[in-house]
């Protein structure tokens, strides 16, 4: 049975519904994998809209490195500065407190990029 309800951010206008495919497996790539892959793979905002009339099973598996682990891109030149998992966690918590959502990986781009007004329009403005 195909269940609808998974949404992923593919457009600047908001979340895009992902059509069910019985031959596919959906794997969400996290922020750290985006940095490791030097943006080859992207972390995306996503959510599941549950249908109360249909039973659904989901499996979540999270893998987190030690706090001392250095996060750096496999490919050079890197789009990101090197950072530790501890630095990433602090930035995620700071963003959640200030803005109500995370955007921590943006804080580790090279060339001192900064980001502003991210949450007013759901768009990232890099200056």
From TrEMBL:
User: Residues in domain Isopenicillin N synthase-like Fe(2+) 2OG dioxygenase?
Assistant: 8-65
InterPro entries in the record: IPNS-like_FE2OG_OXY, IPNS-like_sf, Iron_ascorbate_oxido_reductase
**Annotated signal peptide:** none
Its protein name is Isopenicillin N synthase-like Fe(2+) 2OG dioxygenase domain-containing protein
The organism named in the record is: Salvia splendens (Scarlet sage)
Upper lineage: Eukaryota, Viridiplantae, Streptophyta, Embryophyta, Tracheophyta
